[in-house]
């Protein structure tokens, strides 16, 4: 099945989201764009970022966009496939910077609609567990849920990853 204009890949930690998203993009002709939203604040996160980079070939061009994701999407050359990894880190960055999440989400949705090539968005599904005990964690969970709902409504394909297995939701 050809890759649609917008695909959302959701799943828990270590569910295989990133690997699956990379495989979807790599099924298309290179070059590919990888928009990374992570920020390396500690050694553990630096190691995670290094692991992701090490498994990507030279055909990937990495763009770091911890907060300027819509702008990064708009800067991608026409027709190039794009992978964004990940939306929950982007959302964390926005919340901690006290940005307006509704405005940022609207800008992301518009950038996805305007894109001239396929986009695969990766995000952590965080709403399946217990209600977090603190207000910041509850806000994050709620904002992530709202973001996923909006993007899923716009996406032509939604995949939920479980134990490395893709489950087609839409």
TrEMBL record:
Task: Please give the catalytic activity noted in the UniProt record.
Answer: adenosylcob(III)inamide + ATP = adenosylcob(III)inamide phosphate + ADP + H(+); adenosylcob(III)inamide phosphate + GTP + H(+) = adenosylcob(III)inamide-GDP + diphosphate; adenosylcob(III)inamide + GTP = adenosylcob(III)inamide phosphate + GDP + H(+)
Query: Top EC class per UniProt?
Result: transferase
Q: What EC number(s) are associated with this protein in UniProt? A: 2.7.1.156, 2.7.7.62
A GO molecular-function term, please?
cobinamide phosphate guanylyltransferase activity
This one is known as Bifunctional adenosylcobalamin biosynthesis protein
Question: In which pathway is this protein known to take part?
Answer: Cofactor biosynthesis; adenosylcobalamin biosynthesis; adenosylcobalamin from cob(II)yrinate a,c-diamide: step 5/7; Cofactor biosynthesis; adenosylcobalamin biosynthesis; adenosylcobalamin from cob(II)yrinate a,c-diamide: step 6/7
Instruction: Specify the superkingdom.
Output: Bacteria
Family designation: Belongs to the CobU/CobP family.
Pfam families on file: CobU (PF02283)
Q: Which UniProt keywords apply?
A: ATP-binding, Cobalamin biosynthesis, GTP-binding, Kinase, Nucleotide-binding, Nucleotidyltransferase, Transferase
Q: Which organism is it from?
A: Bosea rubneri
Q: What does this protein do?
A: Catalyzes ATP-dependent phosphorylation of adenosylcobinamide and addition of GMP to adenosylcobinamide phosphate.
Membrane among keywords: no
């Amino acid at each position: 099945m050809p890759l649609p204009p917008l695909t959302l890949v959701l799943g828990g930690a270590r569910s295989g989201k990133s690997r699956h998203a990379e495989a979807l993009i790599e099924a298309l002709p290179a070059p590919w764009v990888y928009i990374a939203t992570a920020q390396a604040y500690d050694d553990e996160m630096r190691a995670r970022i290094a692991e992701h980079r090490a498994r990507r070939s030279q055909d990937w061009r990495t763009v770091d966009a911890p907060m300027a994701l819509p702008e990064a999407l708009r800067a991608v050359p026409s027709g190039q496939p794009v992978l964004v990894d990940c939306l929950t880190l982007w959302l964390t960055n926005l919340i901690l910077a006290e940005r307006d999440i509704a405005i940022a989400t609207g800008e992301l949705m518009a950038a996805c609609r305007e894109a001239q090539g396929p986009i695969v968005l990766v995000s952590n599904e965080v709403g399946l567990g217990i209600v977090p005990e603190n207000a910041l964690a509850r806000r994050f969970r709620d904002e992530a849920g709202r973001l996923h709902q909006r993007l899923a409504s716009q996406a032509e394909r939604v995949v939920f990853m479980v134990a490395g297995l893709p489950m087609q939701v839409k």
